[in-house]
């Protein structure tokens, strides 16, 4: 019997999907309390009222859980972003795209947190098969984002949009930890002499995206 779930064995695909969803939901709850690197499979299992062996049937490691959770969170974000981005006819479309992009990310701290530790934490301790599956899904999601941005910004072709999106990931990875430091750092930078150490994620990311779009439009025209 699977200790975590009410039915004995997930023979049907819908039962397997329900179990995977429950595991991801539990991991997401824990991420609201502490960083991904501080969460173990045992803690996820305890949140579900079961044991680690019940998780391993579906995910080989905690990193595999978080990789799929990142994919799920990013898909939800993309679905929302598509409806929020301005039309290409907007009088200040570059600034508006950058602002909406930045604001929508800032509203999803779990997504940004997972994205920021992707290379350093999540892509370790997993098998090549899991990494391959994740990267194929990752590629499709980033291509979708690039298409969304290219369709809104006149003059930004597909190649430039892909470059923009890939660079934006690097910005997220570098910027998010500085904008969301730990308790000791937050206390330290309350010193008036360290005012410049405070980083507003949405504001800075928006400005960086505007600079990137403007630069790409300039060198391609």
Automatic annotation (TrEMBL):
Residues 40-59 bind DNA. Signal peptide: none annotated. Keywords: DNA-binding, Transcription, Transcription regulation. Residues 17-77 form the HTH tetR-type domain. It comes from the Bacteria. Pfam families: TetR_C_34 (PF17929), TetR_N (PF00440). The keyword DNA-binding applies. PANTHER family: HTH-TYPE TRANSCRIPTIONAL REGULATOR BETI, HTH-TYPE TRANSCRIPTIONAL REGULATOR RUTR. This is TetR family transcriptional regulator.
